[in-house]
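Can anyone check this?
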Amino acid sequence: MLYRQRILLKIIQRTGGNISLLQLMKWSFLLHQETPSGGGSTFYGFIPYLYGPYSFTLNREVDVLVRNGFLKKQESNRWQLTPVGEQQEVRLPNQIHEDISTVINEYGKLSICELKNTVYHHYPWFTINSTIDNKCKPERPIAPLAIYTAGYEKKTVDDFLNLLMQSGIQKLIDVRYNPIARRYGFHKSTLQKLCHSLDIDYQHLPGLGIPGAARKNLNSSDRYQSLFEGYRSNLCNCPDDIETVISLLTSQPSVLVCMEANPECCHRNILAQYIAGIINLPIEHLRYS
């Protein structure tokens, strides 16, 4: 069981063993936002969704707890601990135990409506996609046109998509040659579906990627330099893809996406520099706060 899944199980045990998805989302969000541990470095990220802060990753991993016999689903999006889940010993650092208790003691007795309204009031950013009218609801930002790039290395898909929304991005341009990933949410079909649910367009341009075989043994700066020099020299042989990516970048705020966190270690930086030599737009690498 993943560390963060143990935290979910402990929250459910701590609150009596029967919980709604909305309560679990909000209490987990508050644990992440308001406690010293924040749930730990690998805890869930959150995005603004239909009923405030939401985690696609958390929702998926609740299903994992169901499949592994710790929870059973009931009606109206509620979950009940199974006998296995009730008896499961959950070992966590003392700080995490204390932080879970802090959140439950402060927010655990609120009704679902009170809990939702409290989160909306204190975290207005997470209301931007809400279906409920809220006077504090801010407008979703729209970035000025630029050649934006972003990587998702070591991030949850929720953290990544929240970065795009906060940055005012409207289109994701996937420049991976082979858009598969073991980390949930970054496989092409899943990423496209999640983007669509947040009104972010998705476009895949595999012709602007680098095949995996060419990326093997990148264990020195010289090897990276050689790889990127070859990539740069080959871009002139991709006129259709270059024309497409320029059209996308100049029509709405769009971001070139690959895996690497550091753009200096990723071909998207070379692609951005090449495009900047053709069109009059600045390059901006999106960073996590």
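Reply from J.R.: I decoded it. The chain has a mean pLDDT of 94.
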